Amino acid sequence: MNTPANPTHATTVPSVSITTARTGRSAKANELGMRTMQERAYTRRGEQYLLLKSPPASGKSRALMFIALDKLHSQGLRQAIVVVPERSIGSSFADEPLTQHGFHWDWQVAPQWNLCNAPGVDEPRIAKSKVDAVRKFLASPDKVMVCTHATFRFAVEELGIEAFDERLIAIDEFHHVSSNPDNKLGSQLGDFIARDKVHLVAMTGSYFRGDSEAVLTPADEARFDTVTYTYYEQLNGYRWLKSLDIGYFFYTGRYVDAVAKVLDPTLKTIVHIPSVNSRESLQDKEREVNEIMSALGEWKGVDPGTGFHLVQTQAGRTLKVADLVDDSDAARRSRVVAALKDPAQKHHRDHVDVIIALGMAKEGFDWIWCEHALTIGYRSSLTEIVQIIGRATRDAEGKERTRFTNLIAEPAAEQSAVAEAVNDLLKAISASLLMEQVLAPRYEFTPKNTGSGDAGQKEGFDYGPDGYQPDHTNVGVNEATGQYHIEIKGLKLPESAEATRICKEDLNEVVTGFLQDKTVLERGLFDRDNTVPEELTQLRMGKIVRERYPNLSEADQESIRQHAVAAMNITQQVKQLQQQQQQQQQQGSTALLDGVRKFVNVHDLDIDLIDRINPFEAAYAVLARAMDENALRQVQTSIAAKKINLSEDEARELTKRALLFKNERGRLPDLHSADAWEQRMAAGVAALTRYRTQAKAAQAREEAIRHG
User: How many helices (H) and strands (E) does the chain have?
Assistant: First the structure.
């Protein structure tokens, strides 16, 4: 982890920083013109239901082209329909001469079937022509159509799911779908899966939603074969980009006054200003844009060709600033958008320097030169954070460092809505912690010394200069797959195929649920003196796993819980080691692998040790450096003042843990033990006894009344 040096300001405090290997593997193509992720997806092209999890800029659009063309030419499907969330993303699926790079067929979309380019909005009363176009396409001999989620929903409602039999439906940005019955597209996909007459390819860079809703029901999700290509693999495989820093900066007063402290005019930057309905907004978006430009330098006019503002910095350089906020002049706005999308300028680094946006320049926006995504105010959707960071993680010649900064209003004593400010703070930290997990490699955990066939040395993994050590817990890395093999004593392996899949593919989704639990964040970050780590790692994480996977056995639920806690805590402990290195002013950056090995070698890992670690230790250390001391103390005081009462469910779970303790130690936990977790388990047993006594007394009273 390495604190970046800001050429003009020294105020950014990153919460996570990764240094990449720059292997160039992400950009290398095979004999069919496929990059690593695309080749991996293509090997699963025969699956009827395919879920592709892959970060922004990894080539999901072209991967879909390869798969769709094979399904059309070799698997007997009649047509392919590509469905995107908004019209601007439709350009990602324009014609591609794939045969020039070695593939068997070219990707071609007839102009009349790219409905993202058709005039008219996607609204049911107005978009009848687009539904008619879908009907005509289904009756035509043509093979490919591109439309928006909205157009597709309206077409399915009017034409029925039977009209789409024997076709491929590819859903881009799949996190827009939800298993909630109110989500129309989600319900329709459930109907398609139940009928079982189509092929589905779902693509997303972030398979989780900001509202804690599941994307698919467990039954439907089990039908999908998953291809995962991680952010870690993507960034490590770049040619140019070697580090990504993610941090938050706290301010008091007006955000436009704080922008000057973190807005570096030498960096290609996208500034996302807050919604006019947010607390951070000054309620005058045009004035906010003007003040941001004033922080960059002196306004010198507008370029007539592009519509970009021209701003001269103190150093004498003229910046080109694209304003995507001002919508008062439709012609000027269109000119700016067209200039940003100009394909002739894609590889021209100095075409534009700063983009200021409100609700734009996020999902699907491709500006490879972006070096800094500066976002004012927290974003309630974790998915949105991932998408915004994705704008800055494109690889481009000479671009070695990139960063994401979240500018957040600091909770202050004079604020009347301190609770609301703290809530925003927790959401921002949650997003940062989730990104740390997203950026981590895929962990493959196995138990140590169990005699299990899954334990021991794994082929294809490098265990360091001394090789695999049978007498110790080991860490190995597979450079080809970006996976880390970590041995943990006492780890429970999943028993069912579904639990095995979850441990391999869906740990980030479990961790997301954990990080979206407000109580978890409050207690783990700001009430550490009154919170035993096992309350978080065992009780809270256990509850989240049980609620997410209620149909799995208790043994499988416990295995998933252990895997999720291990993935999060190992990532956080390595970050803490790297922070200590910074504070000691050591030179260089500790590689992630070195940090993991150091942590494992020092502790000889076991699951009990991992459960005894507060997952938020490292995050708190960052906050303590980034926040004003008085504000930090105020947040701690306000949260610690909340009375903690054990619910009956928590008491029941603590009692289960107490029984496990008794099986291991031959005695029940002692309420007066010096060990805080043992005290809490004993308190849980006592609380459950009270609940049961109260329930029996209430039942006795009811019976007395009935017979009285």
Answer: 24, 18
Query: Can you give the pTM of this predicted structure?
Result: 0.79
HSE-up of residue 658 (Cα within 13 Å, Cβ side): 22
- Read out DSSP for 604-635? --BHHHHHTS-TTHHHHHHHHHHS-HHHHHHH
Residues 6+ apart with CB under 8 A from 598: 577, 590
Position 322 pLDDT exceeds 90: yes
Residue pair 256/292 in contact (Cβ under 8 Å)? The answer is yes
How many residues in total does the chain contain?
Answer: 708
Q: Collect all residues with Cβ–Cβ distance below 8 Å to 295 and sequence separation of at least 6.
A: 256, 259, 260, 263
Name residue, tokens 């005695």: 667
Query: What is the residue-wise DSSP string for 199-232?
Result: EEEEEES--S-TT---SS-HHHHTT-EEEE--HH
- How far is Cα 312 from Cα 268, in angstroms, rounded to an integer? 15
* Band of residue 2 on the pLDDT scale cut at 50, 70, 90: very low
Mapping DSSP to helix (H, G, I), strand (E, B) and coil, where does residue 388 land? helix
* 50 membership: H or E segment, kind and range: strand 49-53
Burial class (CB in 10 A: 0-12, 13-18, 19+), 483: buried
Query: Has residue 452 got a pLDDT over 90?
Result: no
* C-alpha span between 486 and 570 (Å, rounded): 10
Q: Is the dihedral of CA 619, 621, 627, 628 positive or negative?
A: positive
Q: What is the pLDDT of residues 247-290, one digit of tens each?
A: 878 888 888 888 888 889 999 999 999 888 777 888 888 899 99
3-state SS string for 545-590 = HHHHCCCCCHHHHHHHHHHHHHHHHHHHHHHHHHHHHHHCCCCCCC
pLDDT at res. 678: 84
Residues paired with residue 145 on neighbouring β-strands, in sequence order: 81
Distance CA 162, CA 474 (A): 53
Cα–Cα distance, 56 to 366 (Å, whole number): 9
Contact in structure between 360 and 390 (CB atoms under 8 Å) = no
Among all chains, which residue has been given the structure tokens 């817990």?
Answer: 473
Parallel, antiparallel or unpaired: strands 309-312 and 298-302:
antiparallel
Cβ pair 523, 535 in contact under 8 A: yes
* Tokens coding 499: 């639990």
Contact 190, 180 (CB under 8 A): no
- Written as six digits, the tokens of 549 are 């996977």
358 CA to centre of own chain: 21
Provide the pLDDT confidence category of residue 9 given band limits of 50, 70 and 90: very low
Written as one string, the DSSP assignment of 437-506 is HHHSPEEEEEESSS--TT-S--TT-B--TT---TTS--EEEETTTTEEEEEEBTPPPP-SHHHHHHHHH-
Q: Name which of 387, 370, 391 is nearest 379 in CA terms.
A: 387
HEC string of 122-181 equals CCCCCCHHHHHHHHHHHHCCCCEEEEEHHHHHHHHHHHCHHHHCCEEEEECCHHHCCCCC
Q: Which token pair is 520?
A: 């978890």
The DSSP 8-state label assigned to residue 350 in this structure reads G
- What's the whole-number average pLDDT of the chain? 84
CA dist., res. 326 & res. 333, Å (int):
7
d(CA 381, CA 45): 32
Burial of 480 (0-12, 13-18, 19+ CB in 10 A): exposed
User: How far apart are alpha carbons 458 and 469 in whole angstroms?
Assistant: 12
Q: Cβ distance 407 to 433 under 8 Å?
A: no
Residue matched to tokens 């409100």: 358
- 269 phi and psi angles, rounded to 5 deg: -130, 140
